[in-house]
Design brief:
This protein has 339 residues and is α/β, with parallel strands linked by helices. It folds into 3 domains: 33 residues, no CATH class; 154 residues, Nitrogenase molybdenum iron protein domain (Rossmann fold), CATH 3.40.50; 123 residues, Rossmann fold, CATH 3.40.50.1980. Helices cover 39% and strands 11% of the residues. It is built from 10 helices and 8 strands. Strands 2-1-3-4 form a 4-stranded parallel β-sheet, with helices on both faces. A two-stranded parallel ribbon has the order 5-6. A two-stranded parallel sheet has the order 7-8. Helix 2 links the parallel strand 1 and strand 2. Helix 5 packs antiparallel against helix 6. The relative contact order is 0.12. The structure holds zinc ion (ZN). The site of zinc ion has 7 residues, from loops.
Length: 339
């Protein structure tokens, strides 16, 4: 097996042998990879990270929705057109999360490009949740499937199958990574269950600003009692706010959760008027830490969110401390050995 850096050296050697320089080639950039390396475009960072956990460095992966921005309203940049046109595989959440990206992909996809809607291949319309920020009358289901670890695993499975189809030479590598992702999801599931169990039953309630826990809560015995953000992503009206405050007082919710990506002043007002504590660092698609950090992964995202919930709702946030949040590629020798 050749490592990425070996392959880059190999490519640089070829170019030198051919008598030309390699201007602007940076290791790890799509241009610096072997000609037969799959080009993969993704959207939000949890999906980008799940794809990386299956593909490792066998694919050149470009996530086009920057971290920490509103993925629901993200307008792709003109430079994304080239990435989409050149891509072999375009993994999109679907369920109407990234409509502008999907439209741009459909308009610009090259002949070799395949657009894969992960969410649409994970659940059927019968399982769609329409709720607070995603009401039935607005026509778009809640698209946040990945906070449910088993849906995330299904995403990984679809990614494995698509990569293997397009790059059968490395199918074993993708399968080995997938098996380890599945193990890790099992461990994550156990850690989440134990963490939720540590929260007093009457506190297992989520009142969030951004409505991203609809497919997580029912699996783990939590209830999403409300989401504050209206379906148009504006701030709630005074009337909606008053109704929410009444509801929260009645439900005795101990904490309300804001989001890193959607700072909102109304949450502070709600907290003041209801006596709930206000926690502002829940994140639905914004990976914690910086690229390269152990916790900068889908696994780290889930662990961070569960810690935040447990700390605010009277549970034990330390249960997650033993959960491994590192990315699979490069951390597990069993994958390397399978080559
Ligand atoms: Zn979202």
């Amino acid at each position: 097996m050749r490592s990425l850096s070996n392959r880059v050296l190999w490519l640089a050697g070829l170019l030198l042998a051919a008598g030309c320089a390699a201007p602007g080639l940076a290791p790890g950039s799509p241009e610096a990879t072997e000609p037969d390396t799959l080009r993969v475009v993704t959207t939000v960072s949890p999906i980008t990270n799940l794809v990386y956990n299956i593909a490792g460095d066998r694919a050149a992966i470009v996530g086009i929705v920057p971290e920490g921005v509103n993925s629901h309203t993200y307008e792709p940049a003109p430079s994304d057109v080239r990435q989409l046109a050149d891509a072999d595989l375009i993994f999109i959440n679907g369920l109407k999360l990234e409509e502008p990206v999907l439209r741009l992909a459909e308009a610009n996809a090259g002949e070799q490009s395949e657009i894969v809607l992960l969410g649409d291949q994970t659940i059927t319309p019968e399982a769609y949740v329409y709720d607070f920020s995603f009401p039935l009358e607005a026509g778009s289901p809640n698209p946040h499937l990945w906070p449910n670890p088993f849906y995330a695993l299904r995403y990984a499975e679809i990614v494995r199958d698509k990569l293997s189809e397009r790059d059968p030479q490395h199918a074993e590598y993708y399968a080995a990574n997938y098996a380890l992702v599945a193990e890790r999801i099992e461990a994550l599931d156990g850690a989440i269950r134990a963490t939720v169990e540590s929260i007093p039953p009457e506190n297992r309630k989520l009142l969030t600003y951004h409505d991203s826990w609809a497919y997580f809560a029912p699996v783990y015995g939590m209830t999403v009692v409300g989401a504050i953000q209206p379906s148009d992503f504006a701030e709630p009206s005074a009337r909606e706010l008053a109704a929410l405050i009444d509801q929260l007082k009645a439900e005795q919710v101990p904490a309300i959760f804001g989001s890193e990506v959607f700072p909102s002043t109304v949450l502070e007002q709600i907290a003041r008027e209801t006596g709930a504590s206000y926690v502002d660092d829940l994140r639905d698609d914004d990976l914690p830490g910086q690229p390269g950090d152990d916790l900068h992964s889908y696994f780290g995202l889930m662990a961070a969110n569960l810690r935040t919930m447990a700390a605010a709702l009277g549970g034990d946030p330390t249960i997650l401390d033993t959960f491994d949040t590192r990315n699979i590629p490069g951390t597990d020798s069993r994958v390397e050995q399978s080559q």
